[in-house]
Amino acid sequence: DAGITQSPRHKVTETGTPVTLRCHQTENHRYMYWYRQDPGHGLRLIHYSYGVKDTDKGEVSDGYSVSRSKTEDFLLTLESATSSQTSVYFCAISEVQGARYGYTFGSGTRLTVV
Amino acid sequence: GENVEQHPSTLSVQEGDSAVIKCTYSDSASNYFPWYKQELGKGPQLIIDIRSNVGEKKDQRIAVTLNKTAKHFSLHITETQPEDSAVYFCAASKSGTSYGKLTFGQGTILTVHP
What we know:
The structure holds two protein chains of two kinds.
Chain A: E1 4-7, E2 10-13, E3 19-25, E4 31-38, E5 42-51, E6 54-57, E7 64-70, E8 73-78, E9 87-94, E10 104-105, E11 109-113
Parallel strand pairs in A: 2-11
Antiparallel strand pairs in A: 1-3, 3-8, 4-5, 4-9, 5-6, 7-8, 9-10, 9-11
Chain B: E1 4-7, E2 10-14, E3 19-25, E4 32-38, E5 45-51, E6 56-59, E7 62-67, E8 72-77, E9 86-92, E10 103-104, E11 108-113
Parallel strand pairs in B: 2-11
Antiparallel strand pairs in B: 1-3, 3-8, 4-5, 4-9, 6-7, 7-8, 9-10, 9-11
């Protein structure tokens, strides 16, 4: 999607290893979000950011941490990956608190923990 | 917190037929209801949204209706085409008060048969 890039697109990692996913935007949007997508659960919010160094937890934040040192980058870290964290991870950005414009999503990162 | 239920989980129609997907939400303070379409291997994309001060909104072949009293909203696709085949997500939020956080439904896999 234009203006938002996720990396890597695919990753396989071993249980217990740390993993960092990156979301990069060129839209200068204030709000950024990390969701995970699992069959039967839709999209669930992990963490979100409402400004540089301003972050908060979502509904499924256990085992995840985030950082936002620059407007354009929002990092999601799995400190010690577990098999339950195998999922597709989506980053989203929003300009006006998701109000009028909704989200713009990245293309996702498929993470497999073996 | 908000809870969004989406039905059906799968929907199969013939080309040219109409398709309806329904969602219910739990938080009466929610006031913004977007719908997203996700094609295979891509991130969800906003297709239409509605605010709580409007009962219906149309955009060509798609429409969304909202019943605030019953706390449910629906997506209607008329004259379906094979390219409408995708996963559809409804969502709800309290725009302006919750950092734009969206709560998503579980998703509906729509298949349009030629």
